[in-house]
Specification:
heterodimer; A: 1113 residues; alpha+beta; 10-stranded mixed sheet; 9-stranded mixed sheet; 34 strands; 45% helix; elongated; B: 360 residues; 2 domains; 4-stranded antiparallel sheet; ATP-binding (chain A); endoplasmic reticulum (chain A); ATP hydrolysis activity (chain A); EC 7.6.2.1 (chain A); transmembrane helix (chain A)
Chain lengths: 1113, 360
């Protein structure tokens, strides 16, 4: 994608935009016309003219393609044993198909660009609305956008058809969030109604250059009126309408074009495949071959041509080397890349197709955004999960509130029933006194006012309906934070209904059905650093009130009065129960105090530089000396089967880390509920509270000692006592910081990692989004280089999802940002179990077999060729015919392994789900390690030796026909090749554990195809070939009895070692997977039912069996 | 799907809007849910055991049969290279020159200690002769050999440097044809009564039928070959042009069987090629009775320059071809190994199998 910013010559920190391209009044500032790109979108990569060269360049930048190109060129230039077609054809095929695919995608992009560029837009020019095309827009133009239209570029919102100067926008196409967001017009211009008025505006806008962060914008508008000093107003993200968003519920708006292009940074994640090591192998083989390739003298019967003889010996040696390379290049065939790609691409469909991962509620199944990570799903060692929305439903429900020590439960009051939970509450206040009454009123008003919830009045709201239908069917509450909705809903049930925000007045319907109006003066927005938000309102009686709501840790230090102890106790109790708590406080401001606060805020808001920081300072000054009112508790229920999933992951040997911004008690309670921590788990705490008592150093080393001691006591047993670690953000940053400083404190990072390694579960609470990514990075970079997986649902998890090897997004309630940035998106946390334990396991087994089998079959293929060089004077004479050389990897042996790698199931899905511990069998890349690889290589070499010398001894100076006629070298090659194809295919048949009709069809089909092809290939004098070397060779061979006998013998001998190895391994040292023989399949059984029965069985007999198998190990 | 397209995949997936559209429920088909009914065999000692015994039981008899058959075949070899001073062909092998018009002849006496009853096949064998050298193997023009007129006049450049001679196309071109074996071998039976009886040798039926009738064809039919080959020249090393290989028009030119046999390049540097067949005349008399024989050689073919050897082999043939004990021995060995492994596995199965059953 092209980034418009790059093209600009003068990169400046800020840009100045002249509205309507009018010069500012003289003397204000020098008018520097700036050049901005027009609104022409180019997201396509290629044009018609540069497609072929550019695409070819892109493709050959890949080392594999380039390698094959070199081989092909070598074959073209020098005289090589095989024709250039053998490598040129597959390469050409791959390149062409890729080019067509990329060309098609680019064409689609062109079309999309075109439709956007041609899209009509209304522009205000000279007080009139003129219709023009989107790509002709320039920065500074004033445009009119009507309801349900999409903003053609980034706009500063000047005025809307609504009198309150707001408009509603959905950003579905930007981040997938379908809720309506409110944007505010610049106050000075919001009164403009007509084109003329708008056009008369004389102003400049200063802002930063376009940034990749969608939600950050800092700017200032200077409005010139007559000859006065310009009026400055701040512009924030709330004034900036982003391109791509859609206008809703507003007839039309006027806006100034700020940025034409907006560059979205798309990431690409590349993972190196395991095949690299193989390169080294062929080089050695080549060198070895080269040493053995002396230039034999030419005997009288076989002279070189004159030109050949004149060549210098070095050139001859070099061409010989290249010729050998061509001959042996089949060890890494093009087809391997194609097959691996196809396997990954097609294999990923099984994830999307999986019915069990489909969520009826959302109407969505799993999505695969990257297909090249499938096998890593089987290698995950660490799972980092978000808590809210991932482990929990993120479906908040207001549970209770505690006002000044008195507990209110909405159900109890609404229904007149006391719920079971209420029985534990000691004080339920029914008749508050006057003093309390005041606090209560303030508390409820605080909750009704201190939020950013919008009221949706129509019933036909686009997108997901956020609010719960209650009372009046015509209003919904909509907010980006579900907590707030839950609170406002809860208030409604307690009798205080928030009605609407109208002309900066918030209206509340109180218990007595009276409407109270508060003027909203300022909103001090929530941010994750401050962890609180405030509003400043003016009551009808003229009082200035500041209501503040936030996490207990950020409220209590700022409280000067109120029943702190009681509320604190209640908050802690709630937190232990896993409820999300918020504290509410207020402060009465005098008029002068308000003025001061107002000044602070305005100054900070107007600042162009460091606005964030200055705002934070201003908030800090304003939000103090609070009076505590009370606390609220909101429940966030655990997701369905979250505990079961976590337990399975644990059994699979995966370490689960929960990273959350919540406070420790809440998070710990969730962790207990989700079985991350069990009753037997010994909890190690590494929190700020502890490090305040002791130094970080001492705490760390003490914990480390505890962990190590425990492990040394328990000795050999794998599962020593579980440890669970709880760490908070502050301590974590201290640990990370200490390392950066280096110094004499020792390396805390290592100690910390050591502790973490020995903990089965870690809970990190109070995490900032960036810290989540830091943790993932820390583990990723630790010395074992474990494969990490991050799963989350919200925008705050994106950094961690991007950082981890495998990122999984949950299509949750907090928008789709996580799902968009992830490699895989799943509807619910519980689907992770199947994703890893079943799909991941299968993909890993499949790709491991695929890669190694490919290597094996090509060793079998090429090694006889290599041996043959010893018997043909090192002349690079190919053993097999060209057709066999070309088709071996393309058609004779390709389909069985591809199908195997798509449908193989070494154990059944049910077994994998039932026995998560099977996942440990493939942990740490166990199937692609050197011993396994060596085994495959040895097997390949052994088989090759058998093929070659079997045929050699059969041919050795004798005949094996009954008419005494002799066979030549092509018969020799065909015999070897026939044995080869059969052995290699049957070897795969031996490895296949799951024989579906497809496997049968493909395996027997390709053998049959080979035979038919050979008969046909040798049965006709092919007119287009300049040689007829294969004519009747295959049939003559089959007419000889000993040929048949030796084929059978050689196949048997080649397969024998593998069969014995399989049987011995299974019998003598079985893996856990071997101990679970596939349950005979009965197709008629309804699977869900069968599964649930199995689960029950496991419940009854599972633990004992596991105990026993563990002991055996 | 193709190797070079990871990055684009990303864009198209997210850009096509597939991300936010509510998806359809996946179809509940056995394939898509990976639940195709399947046969799930497991290789255990128990299942493999019978196979091993069966293989053993089948292979050992086959091996014995093959071995016995091979042992019954009679084969006699005589080396006539003439490396030793004592060898009758020593002189011929020393005084070799391509240009000599006078052929050098030598005769080797030998004794067959047992009679050869059935048809006897007479081979010539060459050692250290790389017919499978790459430059050699491709040095031929199959379309010329198939009677193609254009290729006859303009041989393929694969034949270089044996394509043109004194600006005339060579027919047949190429290194293979040029180096055709041209010794003449004749066999005489020294009757105990003193007379020397020439043994009739059949020169046909030594090449593959398909080669003789389809792959190799004379240009313009088998009649009037000198005319057909007009404008071409003989290979450099040949004494006669291709149309004078034999007097029989059905065995002359490109379809001369000696030529066809030579053109089928051997797989290994030591090879033999069928030269003549000695047909059995009647059931009463053995084809080659016990006794003394003489091999008369017209020594044309030089092998000393590359340390080669020339042999003549007389062999009877069974259904499994010539004498080759390898296959029989291999079958017996593999059969016994399988049987032995079967026994070993049986022991292992009994030892471990019961334990496994408890565990699972």
């Amino acid at each position: 994608l092209s980034c418009s910013c790059v093209g600009e010559e003068n990169w400046e920190d800020s840009r100045t935009v002249y509205i309507g391209h009018k010069e500012p009044p003289p003397g204000a500032e020098a008018y520097i016309p700036q050049r901005y790109p027009d609104n022409h979108i180019v997201s396509s990569k290629y044009t018609f003219w540069n497609f072929i060269p550019k695409n070819l360049f892109e493709q050959f930048r890949r080392i594999a393609n380039f390698y094959f190109l070199v081989i092909f060129l070598v074959q073209l230039i020098i005289d090589t044993p095989t024709s250039p077609i053998t490598s040129g054809l597959p390469l050409f095929f791959v390149i062409t198909v890729t080019a067509i695919k990329q060309g098609y995608e680019d064409w689609l992009r062109h079309k999309a660009d075109c439709s956007i560029n041609e899209c009509p837009v209304d522009v205000v020019q000279q007080g009139k609305v003129v219709r023009t095309q989107s790509h002709k827009l320039r920065v500074g133009d004033i445009v009119v956008v009507r309801e349900d239209e999409t903003f053609p570029c980034d706009l500063i919102f000047l005025s809307s058809s609504r009198y309150d100067g707001i408009c509603y926008v959905t950003t579905t196409s930007l981040d997938g969030e379908s809720s309506h967001k409110t944007y505010y017009a610049v106050p000075d211009t919001m009164a403009f109604r007509t084109e003329q008025e708008v056009d008369s505006l004389h102003a400049t806008i200063e802002c930063e250059q376009p940034q990749p962060d969608l939600y950050k914008f800092v700017g200032r508008i200077n409005i010139y009126k007559d000859k006065e000093e310009p009026i400055s107003r701040t512009l924030g993200a709330e004034n900036l309408l982003l391109r791509g968003a859609t206008l809703k519920n507003t007839q039309h708006i006027y806006g100034i074009i700020m940025n034409t292009h907006f560059a979205l940074l798309l990431r690409s994640k590349t993972n190196d495949s395991v095949v690299k090591i193989y390169k080294a192998v062929i080089n050695t083989v080549l060198k070895y071959a080269w040493q053995w390739s002396p230039d034999r003298d030419e005997p009288w019967y076989n002279h070189r041509t004159e030109i050949e003889r004149q060549r210098h010996v070095v050139i001859r040696a070099f061409t010989d080397f290249l010729a050998f390379m061509v001959l042996f290049n089949y060890i890494i065939p093009v087809s391997m890349y194609v097959t691996v790609e196809m396997q990954k691409f097609l294999g990923s469909y099984f994830i999307t197709w999986d019915e069990e991962m489909f969520d009826e509620e959302l109407g969505q199944g799993a999505q695969v955004n990257t297909s090249d990570l499938n096998e890593e799903l089987g290698q995950v060692e660490y799972v980092f999960t978000d808590k809210t929305g991932t482990l929990t439903e993120n479906n908040m429900e207001f549970i209770e509130c505690c006002v000044d020590g008195n507990v209110y439960i909405p159900h109890a009051i609404c229904n007149g029933q006391i719920l079971s939970a209420a029985s534990s509450i000691d004080m339920i206040d029914s008749s508050p006194g006057g003093y309390r009454r005041e606090y209560e009123d303030l508390f409820f008003r605080a909750l009704c006012l201190c939020h950013t919830v919008q009221v949706k009045e129509e019933e036909t709201v686009d997108g997901i309906k956020r609010g719960i239908h209650q009372g009046r069917p015509t209003s919904f509450y909509i907010s980006s934070s579900p907590d707030e909705v839950a609170l406002v809903e809860g208030m409604k049930r307690l009798g205080y209904t928030y009605l609407r925000l109208k002309d900066n007045y918030m209206e509340i319907l109180n218990k007595d059905d009276e409407i109270e109006r508060f003027e909203l003066l300022h909103v001090l927005n929530f941010d994750s650093v401050r962890r609180r938000m405030s509003v400043i309102v003016k009551s009808s009686s003229g009082e200035y009130l500041l209501f503040c709501k936030g996490a207990d840790s950020s409220i209590f230090p700022r409280v000067v009065s109120g029943k702190v102890e009681q509320v604190k106790a209640r908050v802690e109790q709630n937190a232990v129960e896993g409820l999300r708590t918020l504290c509410v406080a207020y402060r009465r401001l005098s008029a002068s105090e308000y003025q001061v606060a107002c000044r602070h805020l305005t100054e900070a808001k107007l600042a162009l530089q460091d606005r964030e920081q200055r705002l934070a300072q201003a908030y800090d000054i304003i939000e103090r000396d609070l009076v505590l009112l009370g606390a609220t508790a909101v429940e966030d229920r655990l997701q369905e089967k979250a505990a079961d999933t976590i337990e399975s992951l644990h059994k699979a040997g995966i370490k689960v880390w929960v990273l959350t911004g919540d406070k420790m008690e809440t998070a710990a309670a969730t962790c207990y509920a989700s079985k991350l921590f069990r009753r037997s788990t010994q909890i190690l705490e590494l929190t700020k509270k502890r490090t305040e008592e002791q130094s970080l150093h001492d705490v760390l080393f003490e914990l480390n000692r505890t962990v190590l001691r425990q492990c040394s006591i328990s000795g050999l047993s794998v599962d020593c006592l579980d440890f669970g670690l709880i760490i908070d953000g502050a301590t974590l940053s201290a640990i990370l910081k200490s390392n950066q400083e280096g110094g004499g404190h020792g390396n805390y990072r290592e100690v910390f990692l050591e502790i973490c390694r020995n903990c089965s579960a870690v809970l990190c609470c109070r995490m900032a989004p960036l810290q989540k990514a830091q943790i993932v990075k820390l583990i990723k970079a630790s010395k074992e280089h474990p494969i990490t997986l991050a799963i989350g649902d919200g925008a705050n998890d994106v950094s961690m999802i991007l950082e981890a090897h495998v990122g999984i997004g949950i299509m949750g309630k907090e928008g789709r940002q996580a799902a968009r940035n992830s490699d895989y998106a799943i509807p619910k946390f519980k689907h992770l179990k199947k994703m890893l334990l079943v799909h991941g396991h299968y993909y890993y087994i499949r790709i491991a077999e695929l890669v190694q089998y490919f290597f094996y079959k090509n060793v079998c293929f090429i090694f006889p060729q290599f041996l043959y060089q010893f018997f043909c004077g090192f002349s690079q004479q190919p053993l097999y015919d060209t057709a066999y050389l070309t088709l071996y990897n393309i058609s004779f042996t390709s389909l069985p392994i591809l199908l195997y790698s798509l449908v193989e199931q070494h154990v059944t899905m049910e077994t994998l789900k039932r026995e998560p511990s099977l996942y440990r069998d493939i942990a740490k890349n166990s199937l692609l390690r050197w011993p396994v690889f060596l085994y495959w290589t040895c097997l390949g070499v052994f088989d090759a030796v058998i093929f070659f010398f079997g045929a050699y001894f059969l041919f050795d100076n004798t005949t094996f026909t009954s008419n005494g006629q002799m066979f030549g070298n092509w018969t020799f090659g065909s015999l070897v090749f026939t044995v080869l194809v059969f052995t290699v295919t049957l070897k795969l048949a031996l490895d296949t554990h799951h024989w579906t009709w497809i496997n049968h069809f493909v395996i027997w089909g390709s053998l049959l195809f080979y035979v038919i092809f050979s008969l046909l290939w040798g049965g006709i004098i092919w007119p287009f070939l300049n040689y007829q070397r294969m004519y009747y060779v295959f049939m003559q061979m089959l007419s000889s009895g000993p040929a048949w006998l030796s084929i059978i013998l050689l196949i048997t001998v080649s397969l024998l070692p593998d069969v014995i190895k399989k049987v011995l391994c299974r019998t003598v040292c079985p893996t856990a997977t071997d101990l679970h023989p596939p349950v005979p399949y009965c197709g008629a059984v309804h699977h869900l039912h069968a599964f649930s029965v199995l689960q029950q069985n496991e419940f009854l007999i599972g633990p004992e069996r596991q105990e026993r198998s563990r002991k055996r190990r | 799907m193709m190797p070079t397209s990871y990055e684009d995949g990303h864009i198209s997936v997210s850009g096509a809007g597939g991300g936010s559209m509510p998806g359809k429920k996946p179809e509940n088909t056995a394939f898509k849910q990976q639940r195709l009914p399947a046969w799930q065999p497991v290789l255990t000692a128990g299942t493999v055991l019978p196979a091993f015994f069966i293989i053993g039981l089948i292979f050992i008899p086959i091996g014995i049969g093959l071995y016995v058959t091979s042992m019954n075949i009679k084969e006699f070899q005589i080396d006539y290279t003439g490396v030793d001073m004592s060898s009758p062909c020593y002189n011929c092998s020393q005084n070799f020159s391509w240009n000599s018009s006078r052929p050098c002849a030598c005769s080797l006496p030998f004794y067959l200690d047992q009679p050869y009853d059935s048809n006897v096949f007479m081979y010539y064998g060459l050692s250290n002769f790389y017919q499978n050298h790459r430059r050699y193997v491709k040095s031929r023009d199959d379309s010329q050999l198939n009677g193609n007129q254009e290729s006859l006049k303009d041989p393929s450049k694969e034949c270089e440097p044996y394509a043109w001679s004194s600006s005339k196309p060579i027919a047949p071109c190429g290194a293979i044809a040029n180096s055709m074996f041209n010794d003449t071998l004749e066999l005489f039976y020294n009757d105990p009564n003193g007379s020397k009886v020439q043994i009739p040798l059949t020169a046909t039926g030594i090449a593959w039928w398909t080669d003789k009738h389809v792959k190799f064809r004379n240009p313009g039919g088998n009649e009037n070959l000198p005319a057909a080959f007009q404008g071409t020249t003989k290979p450099v090393n040949w004494h006669w042009p291709v149309y004078e290989l034999d007097s029989d028009p059905e065995n002359n030119g490109f379809i001369n069987e000696d030529f066809i046999v030579w053109m089928r390049t051997a797989a290994l540097p030591t090879f033999r090629k069928l030269y003549r067949i000695i047909q059995r005349k009647n059931n009463m008399v053995p084809t080659l009775p016990r006794g003394n024989y003489t091999l008369e050689v017209v020594y044309n073919y030089p092998v000393r320059s590359f340390d080669g050897r020339k042999r003549v082999i007389l062999s009877t043939i069974s259904w499994m071809g010539g004498k080759n004990p390898f296959l029989g021995i291999a079958y017996i060995t593999v059969g016994s190994v399988c049987f032995l492994l079967g026994v070993v596995l049986l022991i292992i199965h009994h030892k471990y199998g019961s334990r496994n059953n408890i565990a699972t």
